[in-house]
Amino acid sequence: MKKLFSFVKIEHTLFSLPLIYSGVLLGSKDSLPSLRVLILALTAATGARTVAFAINRIIDRHIDSRNPRTAKRDLPSGRMTLWEAVWVTVAGLALYCVSAYFISDFCFRMSPIPLAVFVIYLVLGLLYESFIHPFTILSGLPAAGLGALLTLMLFRQELNIYAFVGVIMLVGLVKKNGIEAAVPAAEVRATGAHG
Fold it and tell me: Which of 33, 44, 101, 127 could form a disulfide with 28 if both were Cys (CB 3.0 to 4.6 A apart)?
């Protein structure tokens, strides 16, 4: 168990508690959240952080092995195998999804979105060999999501499966347009041309 907590730096979840519980309070509308919701929010956040941290450790394992400061981490040093790290990721994902399910149907429906954005960010970062370009590409997502939710509220529509598919399509379009805008600009900048 100590190896697991060391791998995902479980103590760092404590630093994010104010942010987690601020979000819970804002989402609770007019009443204080129950103890059950507070505990489920903590387990969901712990699961999400575990997924993010484990994926980060898996992706960086080769870089960590070459750096004297990070070579003693669990994966580079061999204290944990790659399969164990993958299972930690899967367990964190399960904890996140189950917690979201028990918080509410809405939370469960929305739970794939933050993880999808994170995974897309990592894939784009690896694809473009830069972690600045994915940030530029994905910078339009918050406005798109807010616009979709405001539109649903304006027309008094609920977030059903059709609206959810529409939000996913909107995210895809925003990402595609971000790529079409950011990548050519980066290529022009890399050649030294200014326009």
Answer: 33
Residue type (1 letter), 130? S
d(CA 88, CA 53): 10
Give the CATH fold of the 1-103 domain.
Tetracycline Repressor; domain 2 (1.10.357)
- The sign of the dihedral angle between the CA atoms of 83, 84, 89, 90 is positive
pLDDT band at 194 (very low <50, low <70, confident <90, very high): low
Q: How far is CA 69 from CA 57, 66, 73, 79, in A?
A: 14, 9, 9, 16
> Residue 172 pLDDT > 90, yes or no?
no
Residues 6+ apart with CB under 8 A from 47: 92, 93, 94, 95, 96, 97, 98, 99
DSSP class per residue in 88-137:
HHHHHHHHHHHHHHHH-HHHHHHTHHHHHHHHHHHHHHHHHT-SHHHHHH
Q: Can you tell me the mean pLDDT for 58-63?
A: 84
